[in-house]
Automatic annotation (TrEMBL):
Keywords: ATP-binding, Kinase, Nucleotide-binding, Transferase. InterPro entries: Kinase-like_dom_sf, Prot_kinase_dom, Protein_kinase_ATP_BS, Ser/Thr_kinase_AS. PROSITE patterns: PROTEIN_KINASE_ATP, PROTEIN_KINASE_DOM, PROTEIN_KINASE_ST. ATP binds at residue 46. This is Protein kinase. The keyword Kinase applies. It comes from the Bacteria. The keyword Phosphoprotein does not apply. CDD domains: STKc_PknB_like.
Amino acid sequence: MLIDAAALPTDPLVGTRYRVVRLIGGGSSADVYEAKGPSGELCAIKVLRHEMRDSQEAAARLLQEGRLLASLRHPNLVPLREIGMTRDGRPFLAMPRLAGETLREIRLRKGALAPAFAATLIAGALDGLHAAHHHGVVHRDVKPGNIFLVESTSGPPRPAMLDFGIAKVHGAATWRTTDHQFILGTPRYLAPEQILGGRVDARTDVYSMGIVLFECVAARGPFDVLVGADMLTVMRAHLGLAPRRLDDVSGAPPALARVVARALEKKPARRYPTAAAFAAAIRGAVAPEAAFAAERRAS
């Protein structure tokens, strides 16, 4: 989604220090624009949509994301530059405009990724998640579209976690959805406890990242569910179907398949206890030489 500023009906950042260059993305309640800051620097601005202006829940969610990002500093998390309000009262978040693409985009372009290269990317993203977990923040919407791969001139891309809009903060008051039956997250990557309305913690994000890693390597999900299956079918698979072994449906080494299998356990107690433990297991399952060679081929 790329729409130049001239084609937009109104200025979405009216009353701010930022001048819109183009629309570059968006979700259900907010749009993301490339914009120029006061010194001409390129920024990415996430702002509440005009039609959501009266939604206190959507505004609170965006402001919560801003507060979370402001409290977190890590190379594998996208940094926050500013939290502000437009002239018509819509919150926005200003972040650096990073060069690169999301993991979803690279997957659509390349299909399956080399196991060692995928392992390198996912382990880096887990490093960012661990930093968030250390501060009591559970992402709850881990998926390829929320992992940005920052271009590097000296090595593989650097993964950075995006979109903490529905994150759970333990020990703090956060917004609550008005519908108690509403499940937050993306069905394809939901952990069983999210579907059942149970307690979420770091192991919830571990499960979701296990799905992401499986898809990166196999170019398919871990469950024998038809592509395009409805949301309920997908959620039933998370709850009741045994995942396939990664090395049965791809060229992944058995050691990596065992690591992913543990991340995809239905019961949180049987998964890796932390994102850091999952990342360490991933790195231990692939030889450094293979990872380096895969990264060189993918660059």
